[in-house]
Write a structure and sequence with these properties.
It is built from four helices and 29 strands. By secondary structure, it is mostly beta strands. Strands 3, 4, 5, 6, 10, 15, 18, 21, 22, 26 and 29 form an eleven-stranded mixed β-sheet that branches. A hairpin with a 2-residue loop joins strand 27 and strand 28. The two termini are about 10 Å apart. About 40% of the residues are buried. Bound molecules: 2-acetamido-2-deoxy-beta-D-glucopyranose (10 copies).
Length: about 375
């Protein structure tokens, strides 16, 4: 993704699989069918003040699984809850949740691959399905964490509405009786429909019906800002990360934060859950000097799997300038022109401090 001259806020990049279920569209958010489970643990509050409950009553069978405690705590873990306890599955096991049949749901899976009592997660390969739809296949949390040099792994999916109202989440070891499956935390969170139809970059007559798709979140970044924990999100318990590790080369641009006298004002047609104020009140720009900013690209690089369609949602909010035509830039995704002459003030009806977002879809 490449930017030429500009001001850019936060970004979520999602891969998705097209499925054929047609969803009803209901944008209300409900907490009655949301679940935050500390697997193999008890009721507890994490370092950010979020409540987690035990997983046992959601398991359809008490056989085939056991609880375990991690033997060591990596200093980079954000919290002992839910990572220091695990549920370990010796064979196929299913969690069952009663959910609203009208809404989408996030599924977030938390993994801390380490040694637990007799279980060494290096030997663990498994699959996870949601009502038969494969979310993870022959997954090794241990290999994934080594590749990403992260002590813990979070995988986030967004499921289309489940018309039966019953969600089955099944863990299956890849090799029966020899590889085990495990999980540290599970979230099932009711969410509104946040994506509609999105046009493919450079194929303006082709669009992707994201409402009908199961999505996987790849990256969600607070550009020019800092880490935002789930408890500080605007209602959807998302986690937003610092964008600087993804910047290409030495061209970091300039980060800035909205002045205290600028109010971030969501327009009537933009619900606050689209992204929190902290996302819109920090930015990375290419700087004010045209001699410099016309001469380089500000580029973020993301490692993704080939053969999927990806959606990039870019959030913008102009809080420094006040007129149309003052800051105009081009957006390229994989060297293709995604947007020419982007002008955030024009998108925001010439109002400073008004959030807007733009979605782009591209096949990689
Ligand atoms: C959305 O769901 C809520 C709660 O389930 C319900 O009260 C409302 O009527 C629904 N709206 C639409 C447009 O279906
Ligand atoms: C777990 O297995 C890996 C791979 O064989 C090994 O390197 C590691 O030392 C083991 N951990 C423990 C605590 O035995
Ligand atoms: C969910 O699992 C239960 C018990 O394992 C099974 O009876 C039911 O058919 C499953 N439902 C779906 C939608 O897969
Ligand atoms: C799972 O992945 C491992 C490591 O990449 C590989 O050795 C193994 O053959 C795979 N198993 C299956 C069932 O695909
Ligand atoms: C796995 O172990 C169980 C119990 O020890 C045994 O009943 C079953 O046949 C084994 N399955 C395989 C595929 O070896
Ligand atoms: C989260 O919000 C709380 C309360 O507004 C604030 O004190 C805290 O600094 C915020 N944390 C981060 C990481 O932004
Ligand atoms: C906010 O304050 C800065 C200087 O501190 C000033 O340049 C800017 O014009 C002010 N913005 C508004 C909307 O008043
Ligand atoms: C991508 O899809 C093409 C066509 O289906 C296939 O030939 C190719 O092997 C796939 N590449 C990967 C990395 O899976
Ligand atoms: C973009 O273009 C540059 C220069 O031609 C090339 O090195 C790079 O591989 C291209 N990137 C992609 C993702 O196509
Ligand atoms: C910025 O990237 C675009 C798209 O890859 C390329 O056409 C352009 O030459 C680049 N500009 C600079 C100054 O590197």
């Amino acid at each position: 993704m490449i930017f030429n001259t500009h001001n850019f806020f936060s970004l979520i990049l999602s891969s998705f699989f097209i499925i054929t279920v047609h969803s009803s569209r209901n944008t209300s958010v409900s907490n009655s069918d949301s679940f935050v489970l500390s697997c193999g643990g008890g009721s507890a509050t994490d370092a950010d003040g979020r409540n987690w409950v035990p997983d046992s009553k959601f398991l359809t069978s008490s056989k085939n699984s056991m609880t375990a405690t991690a033997q060591s705590q990596d200093p980079s873990l954000p919290s002992t809850i839910p990572y220091m306890n695990a549920r370990i599955f010796t064979s196929e096991s299913t969690y069952k949740f009663s959910v609203s049949s009208k809404n989408r749901h996030w599924i977030r899976l938390h993994f801390y691959p380490t040694s637990y009592n007799d279980f060494n997660s290096s030997y663990s390969y498994f699959s996870v399905t949601a009502n038969g739809f494969t979310l993870l296949k022959n997954f090794s949390a241990s290999i994934t964490s080594q590749a990403l040099t992260q002590a813990y792994i979070i995988r986030e999916f967004s499921l289309t509405p489940i018309h039966s109202g019953s969600l089955n989440l099944t863990f299956t070891p890849s090799i029966p009786n020899s590889s085990l499956a495990f999980v540290n935390g599970i979230e099932v969170i009711s969410m509104p429909e946040i994506f509609q139809s999105i046009t493919m970059v450079e194929f303006s007559d082709t669009s992707i019906e994201v409402e009908d798709s199961v999505l996987q979140t790849m990256f969600r970044l607070n550009v020019g800002g800092q880490y935002i924990p789930a408890t500080n999100d605007s209602g959807l318990s998302r986690t937003w990360y610092d964008d600087s590790p993804y910047l290409f080369g030495a061209a970091f641009g300039v980060t800035s934060e909205a002045d205290k006298n600028v109010t971030i004002q969501y327009p009537n047609n933009l619900p606050k859950y689209i992204a929190p104020v902290d996302v819109y009140s920090t930015a990375r720009t290419m700087g004010p000097n045209p001699k410099i900013n016309l001469d380089y690209n500000l580029t973020w690089v993301f490692q993704v799997d080939p053969n999927f369609t990806y959606v990039a949602r870019l959030h913008f909010c102009e809080f420094e300038l006040s007129k149309i035509n003052e800051r105009v830039f081009d957006i390229f995704i994989n060297n293709q022109t995604a947007q020419e002459s982007a002008d955030v003030m024009a998108w925001a009806d010439s109002k400073q401090g008004v959030p807007v977002y733009k979605d782009f879809a591209i096949y990689v």
